[in-house]
């Protein structure tokens, strides 16, 4: 079904809606987003429909995952556009709570994380980010009671953090990672791409290109650390301010130790005032 999704703004109404689905024996998926919906989010909704009979997309720009200096106030918002795009992709419900609904007066509880959340990647540059993400995601899982949750590999560390949290807290939901949706030239689709000037947009290609070269180099026998360092140098040469390029264990995000572990290459870099992140798998050569 693709059409007009129901717009729900409070948890009570959401629970009434999902109770009907439960009674009818329907499994449902949740797709958490911050809005500014693009093809990447729409793919999560479509994949959600492959794994469940109904899909709830959530749109909430979570103040707790932005630091004071970050772009909370100017984060792109377009409610009618978001609802139309989520509906077109097949969402049955768009849950759009107000901040007061999510964080009532006196809110005092936060999910505390180690492991992949402290891998020294995003967490090094955004120290409060994953606690904010995990807290709101745990709430969304409890509010929706969904059977499956769709997350993009685009935010790979986030996917690992949420997967770990669900396991550690026995939250009865299956977390499914969806491969990154890219522009034709390889740039990962992102709500933040609208901030890029024409020149920065051209420059931005270098991220995926340099990660792909590094993955090839590792497959050809270069050390993961050496390949990551070369990718960082090439990004700097393309005009980026590099936060990190790293090769990590694909599951734990710990630095690689042996020869035969699955690896992920992850990068974050600034094109002008816009911070871009991307990552790719390094398939083993065997
Ligand atoms: P956001 O609202 O951008 O924070 O992202 C909401 C969800 O969409 C997260 O699970 C992201 O990983 C996912 N997502 C964002 N961009 C993409 C993309 N290009 N491809 C696949 N998933 C994405």
Outline the fold blueprint.
Layout: E1 6-8, H1 11-23, E2 28-33, H2 39-51, E3 54-59, H3 79-89, E4 93-95, H4 99-102, H5 122-125, H6 129-144, E5 148-152, H7 156-168, E6 174-178, H8 198-219, H9 224-237, E7 241-249, E8 263-271, E9 274-282
Parallel strand pairs: 1-4, 2-3, 2-5, 3-4, 5-6
Antiparallel strand pairs: 7-8, 8-9
Helix pairs in contact: 2-3, 6-7, 8-9
The structure holds adenosine monophosphate.
Adenosine monophosphate (AMP) is lined by residues 33-34, 40-41, 43-44, 151-152, 154-155, 178, 180-181, 188-191.
Task: Please tell me about this protein's structure.
- With 286 residues, this protein is α/β, with parallel strands linked by helices.
- The chain folds into two domains: 6-178, HUPs (Rossmann fold, 3-Layer(aba) Sandwich), CATH 3.40.50.620; 191-281, Pantoate-beta-alanine ligase, C-terminal domain (Pantoate--beta-alanine Ligase, Chain: A,domain 2, 2-Layer Sandwich).
- 38% of the residues lie in helices and 19% in strands.
- The chain has nine helices and nine strands.
- The strands form two sheets. It has a six-stranded parallel beta sheet with strand order 1-4-3-2-5-6, with helices on both faces. Strands 7-8-9 form a three-stranded antiparallel beta sheet, covered by helices on one side.
- α2 links the parallel β2 (28-33) and β3 (54-59).
- The longest helix is centred in the C-terminal third of the chain and has 22 residues, at 198-219.
- The radius of gyration is 19 Å and the shape is globular.
- The mean pLDDT is 96.
- The structure holds adenosine monophosphate.
- Adenosine monophosphate is lined by residues 33-34, 40-41, 43-44, 151-152, 154-155, 178, 180-181, 188-191.
């Amino acid at each position: 079904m693709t059409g007009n999704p129901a717009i729900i703004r409070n948890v009570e109404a959401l629970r009434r809606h999902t109770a009907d689905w439960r009674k009818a024996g329907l499994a449902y998926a949740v797709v958490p987003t911050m809005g500014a919906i693009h093809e990447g989010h729409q793919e999560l909704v479509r994949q959600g429909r492959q794994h469940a009979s109904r899909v709830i997309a959530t749109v909430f720009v979570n103040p707790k995952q932005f630091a004071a200096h970050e772009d909370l106030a100017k984060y792109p918002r377009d409610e009618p556009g978001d609802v139309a795009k989520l509906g077109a992709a097949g969402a049955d419900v768009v849950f759009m709570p107000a901040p007061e609904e999510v964080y009532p007066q006196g809110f005092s509880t936060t999910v505390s994380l180690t492991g992949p959340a402290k891998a020294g990647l995003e967490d090094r540059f955004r120290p409060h980010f994953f606690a904010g993400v995990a807290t709101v995601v745990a709430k969304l899982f409890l509010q929706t009671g969904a059977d499956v949750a769709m997350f993009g590999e685009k935010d790979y560390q986030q996917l690992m953090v949420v997967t770990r949290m669900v396991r550690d807290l026995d939250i009865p939901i299956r977390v499914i990672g969806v491969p990154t949706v890219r522009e034709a030239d390889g740039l990962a689709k992102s709500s933040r791409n609208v901030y890029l000037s024409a020149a920065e947009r051209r420059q931005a290609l270098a991220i995926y290109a340099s990660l792909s070269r590094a993955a090839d180099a590792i497959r050809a026998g270069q050390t993961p650390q050496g390949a990551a360092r070369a990718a960082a140098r090439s990004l700097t040469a393309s005009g980026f301010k590099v936060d990190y390029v790293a090769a990590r264990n694909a599951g734990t995000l710990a630095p690689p130790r042996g020869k035969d572990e699955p690896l992920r290459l992850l990068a974050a870099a600034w094109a002008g005032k816009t911070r871009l992140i991307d990552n790719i798998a390094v398939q083993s050569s065997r």
